Amino acid sequence: MDIHNRPIQERIDWLFEIAQRYTAEFTSPDTYLARKRYLAIHPTDIIALKCMDGRINIPVATNTPPGIIQPFRNLGGMFNLGWPHLNEVLSHHVNDIVHTGRQILVLITYHFSKGDPHRGCAGFNYDTEAAIAHTHTIKEQVEYVFGQRHSTVYPIVCGFETDEDALILHGNDGGRLNLAELSPDKADSLPHWLASLYPDMPAQMREDLLPLLKGNLERIAQVRQLNRTLDIEHREWMICMGRGFDFLHAPNLALIIGPYSPNLADPIRKAASIILNNMQTGRIPDDGFLLLASAPYMEAGMDRARAEMKARFASEFTAQVIQTEFPALARKMHLRTTVLNWHTRALELTGN
């Protein structure tokens, strides 16, 4: 079923069914044990800083089990470690991982389309070189905060080509590896490539990065067998504000905005303009769109109550920006406010 063309209420019902199925799969004994076994074999923690574009789905693009890669999303993959909330969330995460004796790999991503520049990153006005320059700035900030010797936190710049879901690794000395140019039968050459691109990368981290690259080779081969004419176009019909949207594995459903920038109104305006354009060009019905706000919690009680407050603020703030800047679009807005149980990935409605 092409969900993009269904009436808005059917799309919303379908979305929450997808969320429920994801929770059931995430908490199933098989998936739980597979995740534990994966982390026992590949203990490196992996963080991905990426754009709000719903096509940028690193776990799917690398055939990695859900719950392994921790996403941080924002418009265009624009981040600044000087942002107070991002600084605290990232530092808290790194400290938690270090206390378990593990290392952290940070994938700092940008994205583009090789087939059409205007299927690329709207956040950078489709200027891929500007996006790449920004990712290198983020890399320098990560090194400034967490150390340049890379013994514990290792940041790498990573491109994402959305037509084929292909990763492009940027080495420390300017070298690049575009996995779309490497055939699946050349997977044995990947350790050599990693040693060349990242000679100071800890051995365990290299071993833990390899499955992602091999998975990406498999994904690229799979995508090349598909007709992605619709998938690679912007057809988003929902704006997600907050954290906890890992269940959104289908392409071009949502524009996901992380709660990190001090100027949240800017990515909200950009996301709303994309939704409006999708309606005006007929890529989605003009009967409505969904605004979904979410905040994760770890424990019942106070922590869940704090998550409810954060989600409610995110919902009200986002709705207000859209009502002010896009009053006609706001009349087509369907609002849902949720919290996410981090242990089960269950999405729980709190209102609306």
TrEMBL record:
<protein>
    <submittedName>
        <fullName>Carboxysome shell carbonic anhydrase</fullName>
    </submittedName>
</protein>
<dbReference type="InterPro" id="IPR048539">
    <property type="entry name" value="CsoSCA_cat"/>
</dbReference>
<dbReference type="Pfam" id="PF20686">
    <property type="entry name" value="CsoSCA_cat"/>
</dbReference>
<feature type="domain" description="Carboxysome Shell Carbonic Anhydrase catalytic">
    <location>
        <begin position="96"/>
        <end position="173"/>
    </location>
</feature>
<dbReference type="GO" id="GO:0004089">
    <property type="term" value="F:carbonate dehydratase activity"/>
</dbReference>
<dbReference type="InterPro" id="IPR036874">
    <property type="entry name" value="Carbonic_anhydrase_sf"/>
</dbReference>
<dbReference type="GO" id="GO:0008270">
    <property type="term" value="F:zinc ion binding"/>
</dbReference>
